[in-house]
Amino acid sequence: MTNINGKTRTVGLIGNPVEHTLSPFIHNLLAEKMGINTAYLPFQVKTENVKNAVLGAKALGLLGNNVTIPYKTDVLPFVDILDDEAQVVQAVNTLKYKNDQIYGFNTDGYGLRTSCLNNGIIFEGKTICILGAGGAAKSVAFMCAKENIKNLILINRTLETAQELRSNIHKYFDLPIDVFTFDDIDSHTRKNICFQTTSIGMHPLIDACPIEDPAFFNGMEWAVDIIYNPSETKFLKMALSAGVKALNGLEMLFYQAVKSFEIWHEVVIPNQIVGEVLLRLCDFAYNRTIKEMVK
Question: Domains in the chain, start-ordered, CATH in brackets?
Fold first, then answer.
């Protein structure tokens, strides 16, 4: 990390919980490699203090904040200007304070798309299945809809939330979308790629999976879980057992962080530095190389 002095600009993470986040490792290493005098810190914020956190950070002169679970929609009322992605998705994961304005961005879709493409996942003409219909699912759904996919399947605990997401997507895309609850889904419904966007599989639910029927994975090409800790959720383990290629959420986290960093500091990070920091992240998080993480 850069030595702290009177010119150090602070950025941080607003969420709850934040104790186990890898974002400070990523951003502080990027700052070191880029020679930028900044420090990235996690801020655990209670729900009733979200407004004070956002406006207080602006008042204190922070450069910006990332926003994570569960506040990506809660911060919307305090944003003056939304970028196109955040406007469509109606969720913000990056705040920038500049010229007495609060700018809101969503870099999750960029992070996921970059991660998937780098690992050889092809979207065009595919049937995409998404487990969950919350903030993360919104980013995944809109990202996929822009990739000329064949159709979309939304599966959620409550049908109404999935139907609402379908309606929002149809405001922008003419795309066939089927919605199901986890209880009603036919495990034999064909899907090429499945994204797991719920918190099931994270601590303390590390032994749980949204879909317990092994037949669900038959014929699937890729299973992607946005969770990165643990590195292999039960969802990914079941996919691997069925011969499906699997990818976790670490690279998504990394690439959304890269884009956030570029927004705050108004720079373009060279590919060499991006690659170096990603390798360091994989080793730090799992003591594994990037090739070992894709199965």
Answer: 9-106+254-293 (3.40.50.10860), 110-248 (3.40.50.720)
